[in-house]
C-alpha cells in the first residue's frame, strides 16, 4: 500500500500542528486552506486553497487531479456543511468524526439534548422557542427558576466567547438578547439558555477514540490527564496539566464523563470536553438535566478536534493530541497519553505589540531556555491566538510564572 | 523584521527533521533537495531542486527570484564545495558552520592535524604520502609500530563505514588498499592510517555552539548527555542516552573534549563528536597524538550537523538537536538540553522487507503504544536508513528491548 493520505478541512494553527505528527508517521497530509499564507499553508506541501463550504473544493481535496485519493476526511474546525459530509460518507469516503457525531459540536441544542439523554452532567438548560414572544416568556420563566441570572447561547456559530451572553432579570432579561431572538425567528441560529453555573474553575478532558480496538472491538479510547483551563475574556489563556488539587476520584469521574460522551456520540478522533467544577454537589433541580446536578462537574462545551486545552500535550505527554487525532482518524492504534513531566503549563500568546513574533525570539529564548515556544506564523491582530508556550517542571508556581513571562515577551511586553 | 529564513543544503532525513522545529519557531525553512520526492521535499513547502555542487543552485537558494533572501546558509551534509562557501561568506552571507570549520568534517587529515594541535585525544595516526612506494613503506612502518593492525581511511568522501578499511600486516599490508593508494597518487583522496583502537564501546557527544553569548561573549555552548552508540556493519543501529555506567568524571571529560573541539574549530551549529571508550589509560606512544593516550576516550569522527547519535533528543530531551541547530545558526539563545526521561533508546530502521513502512503502523503502534515512531518517507533499499524509533523509560533493558522490537516490526520482521 502507498502511505496513507489524510485530508483536513481548515488551514489554521490546528492543521499546522498536525504537520509534524504526519511527517513523523510518514503520513501524507492534504489541507484545504483559506489562503496561500495561512498558518497551515506555510508548513504543508499539499495545501489547496478553498472554502470549507465549497463542495467542489472538498471533493477535489479528497480526489485531486493527478494526486492520490485521500483515505479519510477530517477537520480542524466544525464549520463544514453537514449534508455534504453525509453525502460523502454515503458514497464511501470515511468522514471522521462522522456527521452524526460532528453535529453535536456544531449545534449546542443538539448537544444538550443528547448529553441529557446520555445522563451526562449538564447545567439546567432550556431551548427557547423561535417565536419571539414565546422566547421572551420562556426566558423570563427560566430566569425566575434559576434565580435571575442565566447564559443565553446561539446554537450555532459561536466560538471563543462569541455567541454567548450572560442575561439578568434585573437588566431587562430578554431585552439583552433581543437581536438574537429576532434573528432566530428570521431563520438564524436557534437559542438556548443555561443556568450560570457557580463554578470554582474550568476543567477540560481530552479524549481520543478510534473505530476499532478497545473492549469488544467497540473502539479504542484514551484520555489524557484532566487539565485546568483559565479563560480571559472568554478565550483560553492558560492550561495547567494536570489540574491541581483535583482528587483522584474527581479526575476519574471527569475522565469517565468524557469517555461516555465520546462513546455515546460515536466520536472518531480527538474530543475536548470543557467542564465546570462546582463547589459541592448541588441539590437536584427540576429542569431536564439527567443525573447531572449530583456531580461536582458539569459539561460546558464540546470540540470534536484537537483543542487549545490540549496544546500542552505537544511537549508534556508521550503522544500529542495532534498525532493522536491522525492515528484515530486512520484507525491506527492510539498512543500512550502519559504526562512526561510533573507539571506542564501552556500559556497562549493572545495578540502582540510586535510586528512579527519572531522579533522576540532572542529575548524569549534567552530568558527561558527550557520554554517550548510554538508560533503559528499568523499576522498580528489584537487578541488573536498567535502562538503558545509550554513550560514543564516540578514547581507549579514557578512553572506558571515562567510560562506567563515567556508569553508576555512574545506579546511584546517586558522586551 | 520579517520572519528569519534559513537555507539548508541537502534534502534527506536530517533536513526533514528540521521542519517541525522551524515551524514551531516560526522560522522559514528553504531546502535545496536532490529531487521532488526526497525525505525533506515531502514536508518543506519551499524546496527547490538542485545539486549541492551547483553554484547557481546555491546562489538561488540564498536569493531566489521573488522570494525572501536567506538570513543564513547551513547544511545537512558536508559535501558542499568549500571554495564556494568561502566566496559566499566573503560577500557577506553567513555560512554556518563556516568553511574554515566545515573542512574538519570534510577532510580527515585536516581534522586529525587540527585535533592533534588542540590536544584532543586521538588514536596514533599518520598521513600516507601520495607517492605509492612511499605510501606502502609508511604504512608498513605504521603497522609495525602499532602491532600489525591498523585502519586506513580516505581523507574525503567516506560515511557510514565507507572509506574505512582495517589493514593487517599478516594479510599483506598495503596490498589491501592498493586501489586507494593508486587513486591517491592519481589525484584522488589522500589517505591516513590510524591505530585500531582497542575500544570497549563507542560514545558520542553532541554539542551546539552559536556565535554570541557564552563566557565573555565567545559563543554560547551547550552539550547533551554523553550517549552510547552501537554500530552494525559500520552503521549506527542503536543509541542509548545517557551512556550506561559512565562515571560522572568520564562523562564530564567527554563533554569537555567535545566543547574544546567546538570552540577550537569555531563551529556554529550542532557538532557530533564520535568517540571510542578504551579499557584503561594506555601508555604514551611515540606517534603524534598530543596528550591523547592518557585518556579513557579517543576521538573517532566529527560531523558538523545534526547526527544520527542525536535523534533521541527529539523525544528524550527538552530541546532537540534539530531545533538547536536552527537556533545556533540564527545566533538565537540555545535551548535547555536536559533529558526528559531516565533513559531514551533510539533504534534505527535499516532496510525493510516491506514495500512501504507505513504498512507496519498498525502492528508497531499496537504493540508499542509509547514508542515514538519517526519515518523518513524514503523508498525501501537494503540497509538504508528509513526511520527510527525512540522509547523512553526507567528500566533500561526493557526500554532497549522495546525499541529494538518496534524497529524490527518496521523492518518487516515479527509482523
UniProtKB/TrEMBL annotation, chains A, B:
It catalyses: 5-amino-1-(5-phospho-beta-D-ribosyl)imidazole + hydrogencarbonate + ATP = 5-carboxyamino-1-(5-phospho-D-ribosyl)imidazole + ADP + phosphate + 2 H(+). It comes from the Bacteria. Its EC number is 6.3.4.18. Transmembrane segments: none annotated. GO terms for molecular function: 5-(carboxyamino)imidazole ribonucleotide synthase activity; ATP binding; metal ion binding; phosphoribosylaminoimidazole carboxylase activity. GO terms for cellular component: cytosol. ATP binds at residues 108, 153, 194-197, 202, 300-301. Keywords: ATP-binding, Ligase, Nucleotide-binding, Purine biosynthesis. The keyword Nucleotide-binding applies. Pathway: Purine metabolism; IMP biosynthesis via de novo pathway; 5-amino-1-(5-phospho-D-ribosyl)imidazole-4-carboxylate from 5-amino-1-(5-phospho-D-ribosyl)imidazole (N5-CAIR route): step 1/2. GO terms for biological process: 'de novo' IMP biosynthetic process. Residues 112-330 form the ATP-grasp domain. Catalyzes the ATP-dependent conversion of 5-aminoimidazole ribonucleotide (AIR) and HCO(3)- to N5-carboxyaminoimidazole ribonucleotide (N5-CAIR). Catalyzes the ATP-dependent conversion of 5-aminoimidazole ribonucleotide (AIR) and HCO(3)(-) to N5-carboxyaminoimidazole ribonucleotide (N5-CAIR). Belongs to the PurK/PurT family. Homodimer. This is N5-carboxyaminoimidazole ribonucleotide synthase.
Amino acid at each position: 500500500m502507498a502511505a496513507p493520505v489524510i485530508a483536513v478541512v481548515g488551514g489554521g494553527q490546528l492543521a499546522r500542528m498536525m504537520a509534524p505528527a504526519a511527517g513523523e508517521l510518514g503520513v501524507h497530509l492534504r489541507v484545504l486552506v483559506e489562503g496561500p499564507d495561512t498558518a497551515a499553508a506555510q508548513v504543508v506541501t499539499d495545501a489547496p486553497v478553498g472554502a470549507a463550504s465549497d463542495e467542489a473544493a472538498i471533493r477535489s481535496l479528497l480526489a485531486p487531479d493527478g494526486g492520490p485519493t485521500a483515505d479519510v476526511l477530517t477537520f480542524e474546525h466544525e464549520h463544514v456543511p453537514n449534508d455534504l459530509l453525509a453525502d460523502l460518507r454515503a458514497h464511501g469516503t470515511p468522514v471522521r468524526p462522522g456527521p452524526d457525531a460532528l453535529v453535536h459540536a456544531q449545534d449546542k441544542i443538539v448537544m444538550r439534548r443528547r448529553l441529557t439523554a446520555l445522563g451526562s452532567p449538564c447545567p439546567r438548560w432550556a431551548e427557547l422557542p423561535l417565536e419571539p414572544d414565546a422566547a421572551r416568556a420562556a426566558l423570563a420563566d427560566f430566569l425566575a427558576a434559576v434565580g435571575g441570572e442565566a447564559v443565553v447561547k446561539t446554537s450555532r456559530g459561536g466560538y471563543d466567547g462569541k455567541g454567548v451572553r450572560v442575561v439578568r432579570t434585573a437588566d431587562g432579561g430578554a431585552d439583552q438578547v433581543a437581536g438574537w431572538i429576532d434573528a432566530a425567528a428570521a431563520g438564524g441560529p436557534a437559542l438556548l439558555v443555561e443556568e450560570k453555573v457557580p463554578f470554582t474553575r474550568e476543567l477540560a478532558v481530552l479524549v481520543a477514540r478510534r473505530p476499532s480496538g478497545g473492549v469488544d472491538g467497540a473502539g479504542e479510547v484514551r484520555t489524557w490527564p484532566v487539565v485546568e483551563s483559565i479563560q480571559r475574556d472568554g478565550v483560553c489563556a492558560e492550561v495547567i496539566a494536570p489540574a491541581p488539587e483535583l482528587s483522584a476520584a474527581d479526575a476519574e469521574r471527569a475522565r469517565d464523563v468524557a469517555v461516555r460522551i465520546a462513546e455515546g456520540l460515536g466520536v472518531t478522533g480527538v474530543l475536548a470536553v470543557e467542564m465546570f467544577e462546582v463547589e459541592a454537589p448541588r441539590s437536584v433541580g427540576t429542569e431536564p438535566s439527567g443525573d447531572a446536578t449530583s456531580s461536582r462537574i458539569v459539561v460546558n462545551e464540546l470540540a470534536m478536534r484537537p483543542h487549545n486545552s490540549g496544546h500542552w500535550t505537544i511537549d508534556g505527554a508521550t503522544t500529542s493530541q495532534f498525532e493522536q487525532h491522525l492515528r484515530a482518524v486512520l484507525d491506527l492504534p492510539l498512543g500512550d497519553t502519559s504526562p512526561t513531566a510533573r507539571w506542564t503549563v501552556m500559556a497562549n500568546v493572545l495578540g502582540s505589540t510586535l510586528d512579527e513574533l519572531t522579533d522576540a525570539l532572542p529575548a524569549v529564548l534567552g530568558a527561558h531556555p527550557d520554554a517550548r515556544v510554538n508560533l503559528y506564523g499568523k499576522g498580528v491582530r489584537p487578541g488573536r491566538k498567535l502562538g503558545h508556550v509550554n513550560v514543564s517542571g516540578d514547581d507549579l508556581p514557578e512553572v506558571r510564572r515562567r510560562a506567563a513571562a515567556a508569553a508576555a515577551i512574545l506579546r511584546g511586553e517586558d522586551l
